[in-house]
Specification:
The chain is mostly helical. It has seven helices and six strands.
Length: 312
Amino acid sequence: MSFRVTGTMMFNRLMSNMGQATKTMADLQEQMVSLRRLNRPSDDPIGASRAQLMRSSENDYKLYTSNMEQARSLLDFTAGVLETMSAEVVNVRGKLLSAISPTADAISKEVIAAEIDDILRSLMAEANSNFGGMYIFGGTQTESAPFEITREGASGVETVVFSGDSGRIRYLIGPNNTMEVNEDPVEVFMPRGEAKGLFNTLIGIRKLLQNPDNLSDAAQASLLSDKIKEIDDVHNDLVRSLGRAGTRSRSLQMRADLYSQAEISLIERRSEIEDADIADVALRLQNQQTILEVVLASSAAVYNSNLMQFLK
């Protein structure tokens, strides 16, 4: 049984081919203009789905990296403040040793007491340091200065009170992963157990130097010697806090570097899925132009052939 291919069938087939060639050419032209292989999900549903997952992961990395940058800035600022305070406490220790010296008289001790009172005020100002509108040593009470002089006499500061808390501030730095970015001010500055705390220690040293109880030189020197351990304990608290802030900052830097590398890798992989290879697209576009010209020529030949047969 023979099957006769009519002119109409040939013409319809050619028109279909021409439509397909025109559509392919239009898709290639769109890729050439947009520089993207995927301009809509229907272009490659699986590829589009993978690209969307990668983009979501990129956004997560951007969030974590941004949080880590903010956390590092806060930790570095905190470390700088603690380093300054540590140096001032070392200065107090030196002055205390000078006051214990047998050559120190009552007048020189009064001068040292006044200097320590000044250092105390300076340390309190450092403890009230503000970073970006946030008081860094107030725990979670970050909107107001946590330390305040509530009693002051002719001889100097008598009482410093703390109005913050021991709450910790945490930043999200990864999936279900947070890091504390503030120090517990109670552990660093305030009395706890046998520790008298930074401010009370300095107030005690200043009072002892002023000698309101008229102690003998030997008794005063003995009590001042006992204060050496207290000042060392205060300094150790500051150094430990400084070490924690520095360690966290370095840890965040390492993690941020890893996240940046991961984000770059995701962007490159997504580009392979979404972006067009311009050289390849240009070559295919040229080939498609040739195919379309052949289809148009074939269509013209079939149309002319059918027309001649009709005229006969």
